[in-house]
From TrEMBL, chain A:
Primary role: Component of the SWR1 complex which mediates the ATP-dependent exchange of histone H2A for an H2A variant leading to transcriptional regulation of selected genes by chromatin remodeling. Component of the NuA4 histone acetyltransferase complex which is involved in transcriptional activation of selected genes principally by acetylation of nucleosomal histones H4 and H2A. The NuA4 complex is also involved in DNA repair. Yaf9 may also be required for viability in conditions in which the structural integrity of the spindle is compromised.
Family: Belongs to the YAF9 family.
GO BP, sorted A to Z: chromatin organization; DNA repair; regulation of DNA-templated transcription
Protein name as annotated: Protein AF-9 homolog
Comment field on protein domains: The coiled-coil domain is required for assembly into the NuA4 complex.
Quaternary structure and interacting proteins, as annotated: Component of the SWR1 chromatin-remodeling complex and of the NuA4 histone acetyltransferase complex.
Classification via Pfam families: YEATS
Annotated segments matching region Disordered: 178-222
Predominant localisation class: nucleus
PROSITE patterns linked to this entry: YEATS (PS51037)
Keywords: Activator, Chromatin regulator, Coiled coil, Cytoplasm, DNA damage, DNA repair, Nucleus, Transcription, Transcription regulation
GO cellular component: cytoplasm; Swr1 complex
Localization of this protein: Nucleus; Cytoplasm
UniProtKB/TrEMBL annotation, chain B:
Keywords of this entry: Chromatin regulator, Nucleus, Transcription, Transcription regulation
GO biological process terms held by the UniProt record: chromatin organization; protein lipoylation
Principal localisation: nucleus
Record-given protein name: Putative lipoate-protein ligase A
Transmembrane annotation, as ranges: none
Localization (cell): Nucleus
Family membership noted in the UniProt record: Belongs to the LplA family.
Length: 259, 871
């Protein structure tokens, strides 16, 4: 078996669904007073979690413990935070802080040694203020924002391993991810790529579902059909204009000969 | 079978002669007949009974209960009424040629209903293609465009009935050879296949593949098949006989072989208990006789193409199976894979042998396709209209990414088609104009009057200046500001940004109410004006108001002036005395960079692009292409200036500028703010026949001891384009740049002439912008901090002074004097220095002169300082 450990299983691509993002809450005036920095207006948690949500859980995602393939997650906060590089070596892979502004957080995932893979880095834009339908950010007064409840900004993604080592593949297959629920039980996580989901995202802790994938697939298919229609319309228009152009050319030649 | 007269009568609802009665009488008329032949046994058809008559044989009893399936009851069993309809419905639903047909229908059918067979009248899809598609995909040396068109027209006309098409095919072929049916089919189907493949497909891949396979046509095979059929038809009786004989012989041999194997198997089994290992010969089920009429098999035998059956050796241990058993994906393993999120790429065999580098772990969303840079903006726009983000997905799974990829690909095709349509329309327009000109008519007014109401686009920008953002901006550290300066070329100081934003806020209010505003909807502008104030402001207006995802080009010439960069010091860059003497003004422009001299001998261009597709090299290439197209062998140096040899003929002054818009990253914890770079422009000036002497005089200041925090110009050797090519003129350069620009950015628009009479000057933004350019606050007041050290030997001693100024205001003035200076002078100098503090550099009020009164030395110093500041 040991000799097999360093052998890559060719032709296999295995992925693990994760979500990353943040949830933000408006601080109450009392909480603010208690803080060392009273200009902070929000409390937030940025995290990397498994995509499926645990039943009856108040957090987005996180049904599975990802530490079987993630060794460490490093969150790089804004430079103005003390000790901005936060290493999290054991689950939950998350950082909670307070602040008053949005910024880009760099997230670096280091994998367990068996994977033989390098760390990956990606970014998350810390979202504190409520989503708006127009996509244009507007910052409502704190009281109004507090009434709207916590702000969720989560991105689904998949970590894809190609040709994993046998040992690593064994680890992965020993921990099958909890599948996403088939149907919608809770609000939809809002995403800017689907502004129409704003209403459906309200009212509680959102959850990722397979339905969302299907819904997006349908949107893409509809777009594809519309594009095909548009294309054939354009082709027809072009052919028509070309005929017109040919006729004009002939007319022009005639006119040139005549003159 | 001929129907009997009674049948005809019953069908046509004509009453039988003996039975008189109404239309329904047929029913009653029959009954007595049947009663008459009451003996007719059940199960015998009426016709048969009519034939044998009442003298039915006793056999009839045997038919009494035949075990036959009961006949379906189709309607009223002869009680149906029929009528003729002269029907335009047939025409309405199914015909387009207006032919009217009459036919029989049941009387009970609803006369208003649609013609029931209209739904079967389906036209096969008719494919059309445009010129660019033809030249890109469909070229074939054997076919001309005209002939292909002719073929498609015929196919359309005869609904794809190729025998008819072939029969009617009468295209005067240049080669003189006639097209065979296969030629026609081959051409038609290959064109259709190419079109289907290269066009967006609304459905899924499977249906596309199905359509493609229905369009497949293998000409060689079809020709061969026909040849075979012909040769089969043309065999002589002798040949047929010989084939039969040969076939019989072959079967006999096979039979012998089988018998031999059977015997040997038996023998070995009984003796040794093993199989013979001889290959099995399949037993021909049909036997020898059954094949004599089977022409297909005979054919095969004649051609000798009976494929040797693969030896089946399930029990033979001495034969090794070479073919790898294909791993079959059972439902169970598929479920396992789905559970563990495993995707098998299937090339396990090849992967082991190849040395392909390992694909490292990645996020799935990284594989979201990136469209080509040049059309990315347009694709984003097309998809944006459909509510799809071209680079983000809510659920970036494998399937959805594949879907997005095909959507993006289709969007690319749509964008291409849109471009093609624009081009055709443009051609059509020019053609019409030419035709009209030829006929001596007044050309059609094609310059759409840009008198559409202005849309207020700056709404969200206002919030940039709300209290919080402002305070963040001002607390921004100098370090990050410097970063910005490096990153963005030249960033105006923050307070100016705020000022600009406020100004725009005020302006946007004007727009919403002000009538007669203009929008920058063209893509190529040529300004007729030579007023530098107007041209520079127009450029700024175009930059700020042009839709951010379209490119724009502006070309103009200015009357003589010196244009300094946004963050430059006019006292250092410009010889102000020469400027005053010659009356040539200097202007601070909105973009950063160095100082240039403009006159009618040089042509200015600016290329505006969306930030995402901005590439300083690409824009330089556009101009380079233009210059080369005029026959000058120019090159681009590493600063993106265009040179001939070592000498510059063109400066690309400021390379980009950002537009401050509100984003979702406006302010952050602690201190940072973000400027969205949604648009950038590159502008430059081409020296064609500039007065290089004036240029030199005006740009010389000689103040080496003046140190500015802003941008200093880098002097470089210059020369005029005309030195290399006498024929070059402003107009020719315009044409060349416009052509190069059109090619690069696929714009098919005619240049739009900006005339003074068009009212552009009345646009509040431009009107106020021009005023601002002329104010002291802008021209001098925007000067970054600088210090100026000067020294002068007077008859009474040596004097050294250091002037410090920021935003054109004197921050401090200090004097260095030698020890022997008397106290009175020192006091007066200090008083002078404190008076100067806070005054405008270069235009100090006259009340200062009061101090100078009474002491000649102070008067000397003051005259000296004033002259220095003034130059």
């Amino acid at each position: 078996m040991a000799s097999n450990d360093r052998v890559r299983v060719r032709g296999v691509e295995i992925h693990r669904p994760i979500i990353y993002g943040n949830t933000a809450w408006v601080l109450t005036p009392k909480e603010r007073e208690a803080l060392p920095s009273p200009d902070h207006t929000h409390r937030w948690t940025v995290a990397v979690r498994s995509a499926a949500s645990a039943p009856d859980s108040e957090i987005v995602g996180g049904a599975d413990d990802l530490s079987y393939f993630i060794k460490r997650v490093t969150f790089k906060l804004h430079d103005t935070y003390p000790n901005p590089n936060r290493n999290v070596d054991k689950p939950p892979f998350e950082v909670s802080e307070t602040g008053w502004g949005e910024f880009e957080i760099s997230i670096r995932i280091t994998f367990v040694q068996e994977s033989g893979e390098k760390a990956i880095t990606f970014y998350h834009h810390l979202k504190l203020h409520p989503w708006t339908a127009s996509g244009e950010p507007e910052i409502p007064p704190l009281e109004a924002a507090a009434k709207m409840g916590p702000v969720h900004s989560w991105q689904y993604d998949e970590i894809v391993f190609h040709d994993p080592y046998q040992a690593f593949l064994n680890i992965l297959t020993a921990h099958p991810p909890t599948p996403l629920p088939k149907t919608k039980r809770r609000p939809i996580p809002f995403h800017t790529a689907n502004p129409g989901s704003l209403e459906a995202s309200k009212g509680g802790t959102p959850e990722f579902t397979q339905e969302m994938e299907k819904e997006e697939a349908e949107r893409l298919d509809t777009a594809k059909q519309k594009l095909a229609q548009e294309h054939s319309r354009l082709v027809d228009a072009i052919v028509k204009k070309e005929k017109e152009l040919d006729a004009l050319k002939k007319e022009l030649d005639k006119a040139l000969q005549a003159s | 079978m001929a129907a009997s007269a009674a049948d005809v009568r019953s069908i046509l609802s004509i009453p039988n002669p003996p039975a008189s009665g109404s239309g329904s009488g047929a029913q009653q008329a029959k009954k007595p007949q049947q009663a008459e032949r009451a003996k007719k046994p059940e199960g015998i058809p009426r016709e048969l009974y009519a034939l044998i008559g009442p003298s039915a044989p006793t056999l009839a009893a045997q038919f009494a209960k035949p075990r036959l399936k009961q006949k379906p009851n189709l309607g009223g069993g002869g009680r149906v009424k029929w009528k003729v309809i002269q029907d335009e419905r047939i025409g309405a639903g199914a015909r387009t040629d207006g032919l009217q047909l009459s036919h029989w229908v049941k009387a009970s059918t609803d006369p208003e209903a649609d013609y029931p067979f209209a739904k079967y009248n389906i036209q096969p899809p008719h494919y059309v293609y445009s010129q660019d598609e033809y030249s890109r995909l469909l070229e074939d040396p054997k076919w001309t465009r005209e002939e292909t068109d002719y073929l498609f027209e015929l196919v359309r006309q005869y609904d794809g009935r190729f025998y008819v098409v072939h029969d009617r095919y009468e295209f005067p072929n240049s080669e003189g050879t006639s097209r065979s049916l296969e030629d026609l089919k081959d051409r038609y189907f290959s064109v259709c296949r190419k079109l289907v493949r290269n066009r967006p497909w609304p459905g899924d891949e499977a249906s596309k593949a199905a359509l493609l396979s229905s369009l497949s046509f293998d000409k060689d095979r079809e020709v061969m098949r026909k040849q075979y059929v012909i040769s089969l038809e043309n065999r002589t009786p002798e040949q047929i006989a010989e084939e039969d004989a040969l076939y019989l012989e072959l079967e006999k041999l096979k039979e012998n072989e089988r018998r031999f194997k059977k015997d040997r198997d038996e023998l070995l089994r009984t003796l040794l208990g093993i199989d013979s290992g001889l290959p099995d010969i399949p037993v021909d089920e049909e036997g020898l006789q059954g094949t004599s009429t089977d022409t297909k098999k005979k054919k095969k035998t004649v051609a000798g193409s009976v494929e040797p059956q693969t030896p089946q050796t399930p029990t033979a241990p001495n034969v090794i199976s070479l073919s790898q058993p294909q791993p079959k994906k059972s439902a169970k393993s598929a479920a396992y894979d789905a559970l563990h999120c495993i995707h098998r790429t299937g090339d396990a065999q090849t992967a082991t042998s190849s040395k392909a580098p390992h694909t490292p772990v990645h996020l799935r969303s990284l594989k979201i396709p990136q469209p080509k840079q040049t059309i990315a903006q347009r694709i984003a726009q097309v998809l944006g209209e459909l509510g799809i983000s071209h680079n983000r997905l809510v659920m970036p799974t494998r399937d959805n990414i594949a879907r997005l990829e095909s959507v993006v690909h289709d969007a690319g095709l749509v964008v291409e088609k849109k471009k093609a349509l624009d081009k055709v329309e443009q051609d059509l327009k020019t053609m019409k104009a030419r035709l009209a000109a030829l006929r001596g008519e007044a050309p059609e007014e094609d310059g759409e009057t840009p008198q559409t109401p202005m849309e207020v686009e700056e709404g969200p920008e206002e919030s940039v200046v709300d209290g919080r953002a402002q305070s963040v901006m001002s607390t921004k550290s100098t370090r990050s500001r410097r970063q910005n300066n490096e990153g963005l070329g030249a960033m105006p100081p923050l307070h100016v940004l705020r000022k600009c934003a406020t100004r725009r806020t005020a302006l946007s209010r004007c727009y919403s109410s002000g009538p007669g505003t203009l929008t920058p909807k063209h893509s190529i502008y040529v300004s007729e004006s030579t007023d530098p104030y107007f041209n520079l402001t127009f450029e700024d207006w175009l930059f700020r108001h042009k839709s951010p995802d379209e490119p724009a080009l502006l070309l103009y010439r200015d009357s003589p002036c010196v244009v300094i960069g946004r963050n430059q010091n006019p006292w250092k860059e410009v010889n102000l005395r020469a400027s005053r003497r010659t009356g040539i003004p200097f202007i601070r422009r909105h973009s950063g960079g160095g100082t240039v001299y403009h006159d009618l001998g040089n042509t200015n261009f600016s290329i505006h692009l969306p930030r995402a597709s901005f590439d300083r090299h690409a824009t330089a290439q556009v101009v380079l292409k233009a210059v080369r197209s005029m026959g000058v062998d120019a090159n681009v140096n590493d600063r993106n200036d265009i040179c001939v040899g070592k000498e510059k003929i063109c400066f690309l002054i400021a390379f980009l500028r950002t537009c401050l818009t509100h984003t979702n990253a406006l302010y952050v914890s602690g201190s940072a703010y973000k400027i969205v770079k949604d648009r950038a422009y590159h502008h430059g000036t081409m020296l064609i026949s500039t007065r290089l002497d004036t240029l030199g005089e005006l740009l010389r200041s000689g103040k080496d001891t003046m140190e500015t925090r802003g941008v200093a110009s880098v002097r470089s050797p210059v020369c005029n384009l005309q030195q290399y090519h006498v024929g070059v003129s402003h107009e020719k350069f315009l044409e060349a740049v416009i052509d190069a620009y059109r090619q690069e950015y696929d714009v098919y628009e005619e240049p739009h002439l900006v005339r003074d009479v068009d009212g552009y000057r009345e646009i509040p933004y431009i009107r106020e912008g021009m005023e601002v350019l002329k104010t002291w606050d802008w021209a001098f007041g925007q000067t970054p901090e600088f210090t100026y050290k000067i020294e002068r030997r007077f008859t009474w001693g040596t004097m050294a002074s250091e002037l410090r100024s920021k935003h054109g205001i004197i921050l401090s003035c200090s004097f260095n004097y030698t020890e022997d200076m008397d106290g009175a002078l020192r006091g007066k100098l200090d008083a002078l220095a404190s008076k100067l503090k806070g005054q405008r550099y270069g235009s100090v009020g006259s009340e200062i002169s009061m101090i100078a009164e009474g002491d000649e030395r102070i008067a000397d110093v003051w005259t000296w300082l004033r002259a220095e500041m003034d130059s």
